[in-house]
Specification:
This protein has about 550 residues and is α+β, with helices and mostly antiparallel strands. The chain folds into four domains: about 220 residues, no CATH class; about 160 residues, no CATH class; about 90 residues, no CATH class; about 50 residues, no CATH class. It is globular. About 45% of the residues are buried. The structure holds adenosine monophosphate and magnesium ion (MG).
Length: about 550
């Protein structure tokens, strides 16, 4: 009632304000979930001992209440755009007690249904059996003013049947990394889940061995509110395949199509083939975008691959600094399985596992159709990556040999330890005829490195010839390129500094980073002063993150 009244009231007095979005929810009590949520149609396990690890059968979810964070709470940051654009919330609501209680797992808005999702997965190439949401709770389903469906999820909100050996909690450093990367990736044009807010407790502590050195220490527990239209993964089907629950797999496939792939008809006999195709192409579009930004996920296990083709579960990720094709961001990944250059191949490997999990619900001809789609995926992702790098080089047309031009540039960058982000950005800022002019290059700290490579002059010649074929002015080339080559990405060293301050309850840098990454393509004076587009400090070379979070 309150919301309807305030909207009407505002309309009477200032119709333009309505247009500008004053129909945002300003009292958090007015935020209500759709009841029941769509996922209530699926089997939900309801075990009174909800926080005891157990093998769950014949269910897609478990009904699990959140275990609120205790002690004095700090709201570390909020993403104002995520709150307004996704949840219709006036950012001012984040100052209310109800909102903090929502983020910390104490208050479930009306219509909510708190569940943890059951899934399995291949971890580092080996079947790991049941994994599931071991520290996450999907709270409900919200239909926003644009008619979009979103499922807010808390991460770090307590134990569930899927907690295995874990404590159900997340620490501040990893929560900050997830919060910032989710929002930065969104603004960098990478398909991703979002993050709305982050709280940390002063008193609620957990034990973590950050570097797996045998020296565990206490850290403060935190919770992030993550946002996604849905949280189904390849592992959602794998667990049903391995546990021989084909009926439920068929039900889940139809459910996912009905609610999340409306472009596929439920009457279509080959709907699961179409689902496979859509999931595959979306995930390959996502990985092509990662390659273009130099993003390395770090843990591409099948349980971390969303069916919606969104980047999920940000952990020991890394944005490449000095370019290295075999860059591995995760210190636990000894074999380099999830290295930057491996990502497209690994996504395809994961999609093979998805195809395998669908077999029991497919007819023989449909299995064959999926095989035929699979046979095209290598070429598809290569073409997407080529298009991505062409745009980075200012090329809007695609010609034979373009992939070699991009690959050769990366080779020169690798040979000279030139920076991935800065090289492309600086190529977007310099005139073509200055590319071999040492004096002009001096203004560009990464280009001056790559210019030292044997083969640079030849590369520049080929690049100029290729640009000539585009028949565009140099100004147009540069204008195209600054739109796709960011100045700022969440480099590990930048995050480390913000995390160090946040550990002392100074959240200004974290909040500032969210601000900077809203416009990663535009010069930000403050970010420049802090050196965010400068050469990374030497202490940051070789920084790696472990899975401990
Ligand atoms: P990740 O690699 O972070 O996506 O996590 C893999 C699995 O471990 C998922 O099932 C998580 O829910 C679970 N997990 C990770 N950390 C914890 C924790 N602290 N407590 C319970 N489960 C966890
Ligand atoms: Mg995960």
């Amino acid at each position: 009632m309150k919301r309807a009244f305030s909207t009407f009231h505002a309309l009477l007095h200032n119709p333009r304000e309505i247009m500008l979005g004053t129909n945002l929810i300003s009292d958090f009590n007015d935020f209500k979930f759709k009841s029941p949520p769509s996922y209530a149609e699926l089997p939900i396990n309801d075990n009174p001992e909800y926080n005891v690890p157990v093998a769950v059968n014949n269910a897609i979810f478990s009904k699990v209440p959140t275990e609120p964070l205790t002690g004095k709470l700090h709201l570390v940051c909020v993403s104002e755009e995520a709150l307004t654009d996704v949840l219709d919330l006036d950012p001012k609501v984040s100052e209310s007690e109800d909102f903090i209680h929502f983020v910390s797992g104490k208050y479930l808005p009306e219509g909510g249904l708190s569940v943890s999702h059951r899934y399995g997965g291949y971890q580092f190439g080996y079947w790991a059996d049941q994994l599931g949401d071991g520290r996450a709770h999907i709270l409900g389903e919200y239909v926003n003013s644009k008619g979009e469906i979103w499922q807010p999820q808390l991460k770090g909100s307590g134990e569930t049947p899927y907690s295995r050996f874990g404590d159900g909690r997340a620490v501040l450093r990893s929560s900050i990394r997830e919060m910032i990367a989710s929002e930065a990736c969104y603004h960098l044009g990478i398909p991703t889940t979002r993050a709305g807010a982050l709280v940390v407790s002063d008193e609620h502590k957990v034990w973590r061995d950050k570097t797996y050195s045998g020296m565990a220490r206490q850290e403060r527990a935190a919770i992030v509110v993550r946002l996604s239209p849905a949280w189904y993964r390849i592992g959602s089907f794998e667990i049903l395949y391995k546990r021989r629950e084909p009926e439920l797999a068929g039900k889940l496939a139809d459910f996912v199509i009905k609610h999340h792939f409306p472009e596929i008809s439920l009457d279509d006999e080959d709907r699961c083939v179409k689902l496979f195709s859509e999931v595959a192409h979306r995930n390959l579009d996502m990985v092509a975008a990662w390659q273009g930004i130099g993003f390395t996920h770090g843990v591409l296990n099948t349980d971390n691959i969303s069916l919606l083709g969104l980047t999920i579960d940000y952990g020991p990720y890394g944005f490449i600094d000095h370019f290295y094709n075999h860059y591995v961001s995760n210190s636990s990944d000894d074999m380099g399985r999830y290295a930057y250059k491996m990502q497209p191949e690994i996504i395809i490997w994961n999609l093979d596992k998805f195809a395998e999990a669908l077999v029991p619900i497919l007819k023989v001809e449909q299995i064959q159709q999926i095989r035929e789609i699979q046979a095209t995926l290598d070429e598809y992702v290569e073409s997407r990556i080529r298009e991505t790098f062409n745009l980075k080089l200012g090329l809007e047309t695609n010609k034979d040999g373009d992939e070699v031009l991009a690959k050769d540039l990366l080779g020169l960058m690798q040979a000279t330890m030139a920076d991935f982000t800065a090289t492309f950005r600086q190529l977007s800022e310099i005139n073509l005829d200055q590319l071999c002019d040492e004096d002009a290059l001096k203004e560009h700290w990464s280009l001056i490195k790559v210019n030292k490579a044997k083969g640079w002059d030849d590369w520049v010649k080929r690049y100029r010839e290729r640009i000539d074929l585009e028949t565009v002015s140099d100004e147009t080339r540069k204008a195209r390129m600054v739109k796709v080559n960011p100045l700022y990405v969440p480099r590990n060293w930048i995050l480390q500094e913000a995390i160090a301050d946040a550990e002392k309850n100074d959240f200004r840098k974290v909040r500032h980073l969210l601000e900077v990454f809203k416009n990663p393509y535009t010069v930000n004076e403050e970010a420049e002063k802090l050196g965010y587009s400068s050469q990374p400090p030497s202490w940051s070379y070789g920084l790696k993150l472990s899975c401990s979070s």
